[in-house]
Amino acid sequence: MTQIILDTLNQEISQLQYGQYPPELYEPIGYIMSLGGKRLRPVLTLLSSSLFDDNWQQFVKPAIAIEVFHNFTLMHDDIMDAAPLRRGKPTVHHKWNNNVAILSGDVMLVCAYELLLHVKPEKLPLALKKFNRCAAQVCEGQQLDMNFEQLPTVSEDEYINMIQLKTAVLLGLSLELGGILANAPLQQTDLLYQMGVAIGTGFQLKDDLLDVYGDQAKFGKQVGGDIIANKKTFLLIKALELAEGNSKVTLQSWLNATSFKAEEKVKEVTDIYNTLHIRSLTEVKMNEFFAEGLHCLDLLAVSEERKQPLRDFIERLIHREN
Amino acid sequence: MTQIILDTLNQEISQLQYGQYPPELYEPIGYIMSLGGKRLRPVLTLLSSSLFDDNWQQFVKPAIAIEVFHNFTLMHDDIMDAAPLRRGKPTVHHKWNNNVAILSGDVMLVCAYELLLHVKPEKLPLALKKFNRCAAQVCEGQQLDMNFEQLPTVSEDEYINMIQLKTAVLLGLSLELGGILANAPLQQTDLLYQMGVAIGTGFQLKDDLLDVYGDQAKFGKQVGGDIIANKKTFLLIKALELAEGNSKVTLQSWLNATSFKAEEKVKEVTDIYNTLHIRSLTEVKMNEFFAEGLHCLDLLAVSEERKQPLRDFIERLIHREN
User: Fold this and answer.
1) Residue of A nearest to B136 (CA)
2) Contact B171, B42 (CB under 8 A)
3) What pLDDT sits at residue B234?
4) Chain B contact for A16, CB < 8 A?
5) Which of A9, A164, A316, B5 has its CA 20 to 30 A from that of A3?
6) Mean pLDDT, range B128-156, rounded to an integer
7) Between chains, do A144 and B22 touch, taking CB under 8 Å as contact?
8) Rounded to 5°, angle at Cα B228 from B224 and B230
9) CB of B183 within 8 A of CB of B288?
10) In A146-179, which positions are buried (b, 16+ CB within 10 angstroms) versus exposed (e)?
11) Domains, chain B
């Protein structure tokens, strides 16, 4: 079922009409939406809806609202992060310019709300309320992420809170919206939300791990990119918390270094991580979140047979290597 | 009534809670909303609603949605225009930075949708549909405005289309939404929209006129600012269309001048406008739009007594000198 859902989503996304004129405003939307990606969020919405209603096809447009919203955040985040590439292609602000990326992003957020208008009227106020709260939280997470770059240290709790806002709550909403659309009871949609937030948090920790311990052949991005950029990932935060003596001095000197060989920095910082058992500490934390997510799935009052496609999809997410 | 509406709006706006943490995200929203302004758009919404329902108080929150949306567009436009000042105070991107202004603006647009959720459920889909269309058009208008800066010439029709998208349709929506909220028939809300677009177009032409022919003591901004900046206003577009011979050469040389005395440029370009009767040509056009707006008001199927506050308010807009 998941493959049919994905094909349907990609088909529908390729045919979406966002607007025509002026082209500078609308072309970047089609461009960023065409860069692909796993369509993870709308797949989750439709798999979630199918727990309660066989006819997931009727919910494709609201599911795509979440994908459009997600890509809107990418378009604006890329400006703020001055990122030149997104999925191996030039970012919108790089291909056009910052003003185009600001304004196309704005109209993209409006497009997301327009797609949400395909929610049945009796469900619309609830869907919008949940969507608005999530959208504000994603902005909060992005602001915190930018703030953290300027801070000398960030605590584990602060970091988990930030990635939950920036990344995980949108996976929570994706699953919750599926339930809302398919008329699931409140207790079930709450469980779906909790499940999405937990899986999403584990998912981000996995991202942090793959950056250091991923297989370069499978990973796609440059292994060690976060280390090179001093990105405050869970691994670095944990290492800064635990390092003592020589490890602490060496780690700090790599963080302060302005001129270095990338491979050397990646190797030496990874060595410190290894000494401090950062990999398994992160895996423990990640697996706690995945376990919480799977526990929520167990608790859902739906037959195992109905759960199977969602369970399979989430298992694949958990074990992904890129 | 208008004064009570304005006081109620300002009171409600000063008490709005947008969010708390992180402060960089939410403080700019309170800041830009506190800079004041005439609250023209929500006043129009509530005056419009009071044509059909005495209890305009129940519609304050959706009316403020339009004011929040308007200020969101100002926050993002100021980044794109690199404007240092807004209503005599530092713009958000100047007081904080571009990234804060992008992200606060984003969450502000979400806040506008959240305020729209106070529309009665049975009216919500229609209100959202109208709001979305208008929001996209305002973005289109801003993109066209930026595009026009790069073009050697713009036609009168292109200019009118641009200001209608950038400015006038939001005044149309303001009036239309009042009708929708107060359960007015479709024919009446269509008339209200048409009225707002016409008045809004005249309003922008008046802005263009005041920049050149305003009374400095009353105007607030620097008279001649558009001339100094080569802004493609209706006046300049008309002058470029009509100038011949000496006037044409002189006008073009002022547009190409990179080093000049501001007062001299303003005086000489104004002289060319005067020779070409640009003021009265603009007034004729502006008055056509005002007449169309007032004609729509005449056509509204509501007693003259009920119309009086809205009529008075619009008359004051038409005759404003700042």
Assistant:
1) A107
2) no
3) 98
4) no
5) A164
6) 96
7) yes
8) 115
9) no
10) bbbeeeeebeeeebbbbbbbbbbbbbbbbbbbbb
11) 2-318 (1.10.600.10)
The tokens describing A12, both together, are 């529908």
Binary contact (A128, B113; C-beta < 8 A):
yes
Q: What is the pLDDT of residues B235-281, one digit of tens each?
A: 999 999 999 999 999 999 999 999 999 999 999 999 999 999 999 99
Q: Position of tokens 């409600």?
A: B12
Mean pLDDT of all residues belonging to chain B: 96
Q: Please list the residues that pair with A89 across neighbouring strands.
A: A86
Q: Can you give the pLDDT at residue A212?
A: 95
Q: Return the pLDDT at B177.
A: 98
Given the DSSP bridges, would you call strands B89-90 and A89-90 parallel, antiparallel or unpaired?
Answer: unpaired
Q: Are B197 and B214 in contact (CB under 8 A)?
A: no
Cα A165 from Cα B269, distance rounded (Å): 54
Pairing of strands B85-86, A89-90: unpaired
Q: Write down how long chain A is.
A: 322
A41-50, A268-277, B15-24, B97-106: range with lowest mean pLDDT: B15-24
pLDDT at B218 over 80: no
Instruction: Give the C-alpha separation, B48 to B173, whole Å.
Output: 11
Nearest of B301, B295, B298 to residue B52 by alpha carbon: B301
pLDDT band at B205 (very low <50, low <70, confident <90, very high): very high
First to last CA, chain B: 22
Would you call B98 helix, strand, or coil by DSSP? helix
With a CB cutoff of 8 Å and minimum separation 6, the contacts of A140 are: A165, B19, B21, B22, B25, B107
At residue B216, the pLDDT reads: 78
CB-based contact, A85 to chain B, within 8 Å? no
- Please, what are the averages of pLDDT over each run of 10 residues along chain A (322 residues)? 96 93 96 94 98 98 98 97 92 97 98 98 98 98 95 96 98 98 98 98 96 83 88 97 95 94 96 97 98 98 98 94 78
- Taking the C-alpha atoms of residue A98 and residue A104, their distance in angstroms, rounded to an integer, is 10
Rounded Cα distance between A100 and A137, Å, is 24
Q: Residue B128 is nearest to which of A117, A129, A139, comparing CB atoms?
A: A117
